[in-house]
Automatic annotation (TrEMBL):
Top-level enzyme category: transferase
A Pfam family recorded for this sequence: NTP_transferase
One function term, GO molecular function aspect: UTP:glucose-1-phosphate uridylyltransferase activity
Record-listed E.C. numbers: 2.7.7.9
Family: Belongs to the UDPGP type 2 family.
Domain Nucleotidyl transferase stretches: 11-268
Organism the protein comes from: Jiella endophytica
Any single biological process term in GO: UDP-alpha-D-glucose metabolic process
Catalytic activity: alpha-D-glucose 1-phosphate + UTP + H(+) = UDP-alpha-D-glucose + diphosphate
Keywords noted in UniProt: Nucleotidyltransferase, Transferase
Name the UniProt record assigns to this protein: UTP--glucose-1-phosphate uridylyltransferase
Entries under PANTHER family matching the protein: UTP--GLUCOSE-1-PHOSPHATE URIDYLYLTRANSFERASE
Length: 295
């Protein structure tokens, strides 16, 4: 069985829900406390043993490439000023030379198309996909758990979360088969079924381990929902010839592509931080008593 060594981060979306901020800043670079959203997701990939990061970028996303590069002037200035802790922090986060690759999607034709753009960089091996605006927080990372499941099942592994059974029509839903390792086998996948037709309430969330055959499928994939080339449609086709298993994630998921999820992530990660936690709680209590909604 081939090891999962590479991860794809599709960062070419327009981020329209965060306009006007995303006119000039990619949504993946918005900060949760003091790190860009993308850093949390890259940390999760590295914890899972991923050693090559592949970013599918687009116009206005050059700052992501800069972020993962060494900023020589900044490092020199920090060294001159004796800021060793800050230097060490940057050093710890720095991908090793040659372990981060970037390719452009050219036009935002959908998530499936963005993944297809990474085909040459991935090559003929299984790979992970992490949706870079979803921060998934747990004691052991979601992708690390998925890699453990993959080592038992091979094939394809996706993360799922239990959704409100009345809201299955908002998500891709999987059918639950027998338990295996820390997950279960998938008996089928349906895109946005009505609650009465849904095979379960396990919805597909933002992490995937897929076999490279997905690329041939995506190459000829017709446009689907939203007039975009959808990854889920490609996976439905792949599931006709290959096995899928699911890892049911039970940690906290923050959808930083939405305003509410992004703000929740900021509050949660501030509360995890012993250096600012008490002050943040005090400030929030005061604000909640005094701030009224705008007219
Ligand atoms: P979303 O639909 O959540 O992202 O896509 P978006 O289009 O950037 O956001 P809104 O809805 O306009 O606010 C899920 C993921 O797929 C990537 C996005 O960057 C996001 O990480 N994506 C989407 C691409 O890389 N290319 C695309 O053409 C579409």
């Amino acid at each position: 069985m081939k090891k999962v060594r590479k991860a794809v981060f599709p960062v070419a979306g327009l981020g329209t829900r965060f306009l006007p901020a995303t006119k000039a800043i990619p949504k993946e670079m918005l900060t949760v406390v003091d790190r860009p959203v993308i850093q949390y997701v890259v940390d999760e990939a590295q914890e899972a043993g991923i050693d090559h990061l592949i970013f599918v970028t687009g116009r206005n996303k050059g700052v992501i490439e800069d972020y993962f590069d060494i900023q020589v002037e900044l490092s020199n200035t920090l060294a001159e000023r004796g800021k060793t802790a800050e230097l060490q922090l940057l050093d710890d986060l720095q991908p090793k030379p040659g372990t981060a690759s970037f390719t452009r999607q050219q036009a935002p034709l959908g998530l499936g198309h963005a993944i297809w753009c990474a085909r040459d960089l991935v090559g003929n091996e299984p790979f992970a996909i992490l949706l870079p605006d979803m921060i998934m927080q747990a004691e052991k990372g979601c992708l690390a758990e998925m890699v453990a499941l993959y080592e038992k099942t091979g094939g394809n592994v996706i993360s799922v979360e239990e959704c409100d059974p009345q809201e299955t029509n908002k998500y891709g839903i999987v059918g639950k088969g027998g338990d295996v390792g820390n997950g279960f086998r998938i008996t089928g996948m349906v895109e946005k079924p009505k609650p009465e037709d849904a095979p379960s309430n396990y919805s597909i969330s933002g992490r995937y381990i897929l076999q490279p055959e997905i690329f041939d499928i995506l190459a000829t994939q017709e446009k689907g929902a939203g007039n975009e080339i959808q990854l889920t449609d490609g996976m439905l086709k792949l599931a006709e010839s290959q096995d899928f298993a699911a890892y049911p994630f039970t940690g906290r998921t923050f959808d930083c592509g939405s305003k509410e999820g992004f703000i929740e992530a900021n509050v949660a990660f501030a509360l995890y931080r012993p250096d600012i936690r008490d002050k943040v709680i005090g400030n929030m209590e005061r604000l909640m008593q005094t701030v009224k909604p705008a007219e």
